[in-house]
Amino acid sequence: MMKSFLPFAVLLLAFPVSSAAEKPPSSAEASEGRPNVILVMTDDQGYGDLSCHGNPDFETPNLDRLYSESVRFTDFHVDPTCAPTRAALITGRYSLSTGVWHTIAGRSFLHPEEITMANVLKDDGYSTGMFGKWHLGDNYPCRPHDRGFDTALYHGGGGVGQTPDPWGNDYFDDRYFLNGTPNQTEGYCTDAFFNEAMSYMKSQGDDPFFCYLLPNAPHGPFYVDPKYSQPFVEKGFSQNRANFYGMLVNFDENMGRLEQFLQDEGLRENTIFIFMTDNGTAGPWYPKEGEDFTAGLRGIKGSIYEGGHRVPFFVRWPAGGIGGGQDVAHPAAHIDVLPTLMELCGAQRGEGPPLHGRSLASLLKDPTASWVERKLVVNNQRIPVPQKYKDFVVIDGHYRLVGKEELYSLDSDRGQESNLIEQLPEKGAELLEAYETWWDQVAVRNDTFVPITVGAKQENPAFLSAHDWHAEKIPWHQEVVVEAPLFNGPWEIQVERSGTYRIALMERPPAAIFPIDASKAILEVGGQTLEAEISSGATSVSFELELEAGEGQLLTTFVNESGEERGAYYVTVLFVED
Questions:
Q1: Confidence band (pLDDT; 50, 70, 90) for 22?
Q2: Which of 215, 281, 414, 482 is 20 to 30 Å from the Cα of 258, by its Cα?
Q3: Which residue ranges form the domains of the chain, and what is each CATH number?
Q4: How far apart are CA 399 and CA 76, in angstroms?
Q5: Max intra-chain CA distance, the chain
Q6: What pLDDT does 286 receive?
Q7: Does pTM surpass 0.85?
Q8: 553 and 523 Cβ atoms separated by less than 8 Å
Q9: What is the mean pLDDT of residues 359-367?
Q10: Helix/strand/coil (H/E/C) assignment for every residue in 212-227
Q11: Residues of 33-69 as b/e, b for ≥16 C-beta within 10 angstroms?
Q12: Per-residue pLDDT tens for 238-256?
C-alpha cells in the first residue's frame, strides 16, 4: 500500500524564489491600515472570454473598467484544469507537490501539510472568508474551514450538482455547505455567492479581511436565467453557447454590484483587488462545439498549448499605488500570488514546505522595474499516478517547449503554428533539462494518498461520495449517479480513533430518500468483509464493526438479482464509541 504522508522536502529550486517571498516585511513595517484583500477567480473563463481582450460576441463592461484601472499581467499562467490551479494558487507551490493533480478520483485533496493563503493571512490578524468553488476536498481535514477560513460557503466537488454536492442543486435556490453544514441560499448561484461575500465583508467593520470569491460560473452545465441567454439566442448562437455567454454577462453584472458595494462601504481605496480565472475557456466543452474566441491563443481548457493555461490577471490597489491600466509582459503564474500578498500585506508564513513562487510586488508598483526572468512549468496529469513527460510545457520568456518535440516562439507565433524544435535544438534541450530538474524537485507525492479521515471529532459522521473513489470510472456527477452505472472503487481512509463504527451504504444520499436497487450489500474495510441482505424499499443498509486506528481502504459492493455489481455511491461512517 502506498504511504499517505511524507516529511517536508527541502527543495533546492532551479526556479528561485525572491527574498520577499522568503522574508516579507513584518506587520509592524507595513503601512498603517493594512489593506483588505479580495481575490475573485471564475471557473472556466478563458483569456478571450472578456470584451477587454477583444471578444466580439458579448460585452463585459465591469471587467473592462477593472482592466482599465489595474496592473495587468499579459503572460500569466495557471494549470489547465481547476483543482490543480486552486491548489497552486492557495499554497504558492506547484500543484504536483501539494497532492492535487486531478479533479476527481481522490486526487483533488490538498495535503494536510500544506500552508494556505488563508492560514498565512489569518495568522497575521486577518479575518478570512471564502465563497463558491473550493474543490480541494469535501472531507476533514481538507475542507476550507479546516484550512484557515473562518467562514466558508461552498458547493461540493468541482461543480454545482456534482456527486458530493447537496442532492438536487441546480444553480437556483440551492443549498451550499456553510462550514460543513448544508445551508439554504436564495437566487442564482453566482448572485448568492456574491451576496454572501458582501455580507461577510460588511460584517468585518474596520478589521482587515481576506475574501476569496470563487463563483462556479461559467462552468458547465450551463444553467442561467433566460433573460441573460435569450439575447444571444436571438443573435443566432446555439442555446448551449448562449447560456455560456449569459453566465458571463451575469458574472460581470455581479462584478459591478461588488464595485458599487466597495465604494458605498468606503473599502475601495485600501483593498487589494485581484481578478483571474482558473484555466482556459470551456465554452466548447459542454458539449464540444464550434470554435471559441481565444484572443489568438491555441487551445482551450485541458490543453498544454497557451489557450489552456494563459489567463487574465488584474490587480488594483489605489491606496498602494497599484493600478493605472498598465501592462506587465513578464511571464508569471498562480504560484506567485501568495508571496506577492505576503509582501504587500506584510504577512509572515509559518514553517512548512518551500514556496515555489516569487513576489510580483515590485512589478505591480512599477511595471517597468527590473526583473530577473525564470522558467515556469505547466503540467497536466489527470491520471491516478503522475507520469513524467506527460502533457507539460516549459515557459521561458517568449519560448514554449510543449512536450519533448515542440518548440514555439510566441513573439512571432502567438498561435503556436510553427514548430522550431529542429531549427533550435539547443534551446529545446535547455528547456527539457529544466523540466527534468523541475520534475525531480516537485514530484514528491506521486506515490502517496491524501486519505479521507473518518472518526474525527471535526466530522462525525464522515460523508463519502463516489466522486472520490480511487478508480478509472467515476460517477462524478449526480446525473451519472441517476444512471446507476456498474462502476466501483475504494476510498482511501484514515481511521482517526479505534472503536466502534457504524457504516451506512446508500445508492443516493439520505435527502433523496431513494430505495437501493440491489439485494445484497458487501463491505470491506479494516481487513474485514461483511455482508447483509437488503430488504425491499430500503434506502440504506448499515454495518456496525470495530476498527483500529490507521490507514486503509473502504470498498463497498451492491449486488442485484441479476448478479450485477456496483459500488455504493454514498457512504456515511459514524464513530460510535471507544
A1: very low
A2: 281
A3: 19-365 (3.40.720.10), 377-442 (3.30.1120), 452-577 (2.60.120)
A4: 14
A5: 72
A6: 61
A7: yes
A8: no
A9: 98
A10: EEECCCCCCCCCCCHH
A11: ebbbbbbbbbbbbbbbbbbbbebebbbbebbbebbeb
A12: 999 999 999 999 999 999 9
